[in-house]
Amino acid sequence: MTLEGEVREAADRILDADEVTVISHIDADGITSLSVLMQAITRAGVMATPVFLRQLEPLMMHRVPQDNSLKVFSDLGAGQQNLLEEHGLTEDEVVIVDHHVSQEVDTPYLQVNALPYGHTKFSAAGAAYLVARAIDADNRDLAKLAVIGNVGDMMAREDCGLIGPAREIAADGIEYGNVAARRDLNIFGISTRPLHISLAYSSETPVQGVTGNPQGARRLLERHGIRTRTGEGRWRVWEDLDDGERQSITSALAEQVIADGGDVEKLTAELYLFPDETPHTALRNAAEFSTLLNACGRWARPEVGAAVCADDRGVALREAEHMLTHHRATIKELMNYILKTGVEERGAVQYIHVGDRFPDTVVGIGAGMALSRLNPDKPILVMCSLPEDPSLTKVSMRATDRMVEGGVDLQAALVEAAAPFGGAGGGHAIAAGAYIPREAEEEFLGLVDGCIGRQRTRPPMP
Ligand code: C5P
Ligand code: C5P
């Protein structure tokens, strides 16, 4: 089958169903893919019920209803098809809309998954959008949610933004009018953070005198005659600046990076903005919107994020913003903990155990952010304990595009290393996770290290 064929069949099966259950993951990509599907399905007049799962694992299967509804799994399912089989789900009652590595099983479940077609930079929300558009071409307003899912799952490349089908989806949103894309300074918080804070705390490309130095950032702004507050006394944000102001700061930062012998390549990136949202809120751009959704999921309230996606704002938005503040503080604390404590270098990986200091749902995000400030040649592996089950350890790994191009595949490494202990692992080449028995930590680490070491000695992929 082709990807188009998978999309068409999924849409037809949904349209034929009396009732659908959408079962999705709790992160930004899971929340947006569920929201895209729920909106498309209910607009088509079919009843739909949402279910969020932290992971598709044996203990969670009781949340998958045993009824006559069509079960649409989004952002999960591809890698756990054995569980669907064990749960007695037949081919007819399942559609999987996912972007994870697929697991071979006897039952030929219908899957909409662009990964086997070579699209590695494509999220589940992207796949959900293709299905929504096949249900009804008028669903193009939902492209915006797919852009958020793609950005939330780090599918945008630093050099050229979203690529392949993810780029075509962004183009749908731009044409519809609720998405705008522009090449701009690669900083976080362009809609909500005071200018100098945003400049100081976005460290993708360190700039001497500015990174980690809000006072220095303020002086830079003053030198260029850029006001940091509005007439009413509100802090200005990057989004408030006009083209000329943005250009002068970007050029000044580039000059400083070049003077320090740094690389300006990652100083700018393609940013995705939402002109239909209220200015100065976290909903105004894809990076902040996806962080807000991740916050909802990681604090176990994904349904609040889904309400925000479905324009059901009010109380939900206030609650989501509250979780976002908490989430940002926790991630900052985790990053500082990793960088201050330092990682232990093994042959092929760098490693840290954070104990029970941080929730297992955020360690992967913190690991990814810390990696840009650690050894650029080794993937990072973070372990944490699960307070609700002390016999288990959660493992999160993150790599970079360059490592993956050099042969690193974290998903394969974790699946292989977890197998001898009956652990469950999965994810992507660039980001993966696993649960293992606590007593196996040291041995597991050795296996992962050996596995990554062997991957790196393979000839690079074409
Ligand atoms: O299940 P899952 O796909 O949700 O994992 C999402 C996590 O993986 C995010 O934290 C994201 O940072 C990371 N990821 C990534 N690059 C990819 C895919 C996922 O960094 N290409
Ligand atoms: O939890 P974390 O953000 O590190 O997850 C990274 C990726 O690994 C995600 O795609 C997640 O779905 C996957 N994962 C998995 N099995 C686990 C833990 C994480 O497939 N036990």
Automatic annotation (TrEMBL):
<dbReference type="Pfam" id="PF02272">
    <property type="entry name" value="DHHA1"/>
</dbReference>
<dbReference type="InterPro" id="IPR003156">
    <property type="entry name" value="DHHA1_dom"/>
</dbReference>
<dbReference type="GO" id="GO:0004527">
    <property type="term" value="F:exonuclease activity"/>
</dbReference>
<protein>
    <submittedName>
        <fullName>DHH family phosphoesterase</fullName>
    </submittedName>
</protein>
<feature type="domain" description="DHHA1">
    <location>
        <begin position="356"/>
        <end position="452"/>
    </location>
</feature>
<dbReference type="InterPro" id="IPR048515">
    <property type="entry name" value="DHH_CID"/>
</dbReference>
<feature type="domain" description="DDH">
    <location>
        <begin position="20"/>
        <end position="149"/>
    </location>
</feature>
<dbReference type="InterPro" id="IPR001667">
    <property type="entry name" value="DDH_dom"/>
</dbReference>
<dbReference type="GO" id="GO:0003676">
    <property type="term" value="F:nucleic acid binding"/>
</dbReference>
<feature type="domain" description="DHH-CID">
    <location>
        <begin position="187"/>
        <end position="266"/>
    </location>
</feature>
<dbReference type="Pfam" id="PF21763">
    <property type="entry name" value="DHH_CID"/>
</dbReference>
<dbReference type="InterPro" id="IPR051673">
    <property type="entry name" value="SSDNA_exonuclease_RecJ"/>
</dbReference>
<dbReference type="Pfam" id="PF01368">
    <property type="entry name" value="DHH"/>
</dbReference>
<dbReference type="InterPro" id="IPR038763">
    <property type="entry name" value="DHH_sf"/>
</dbReference>
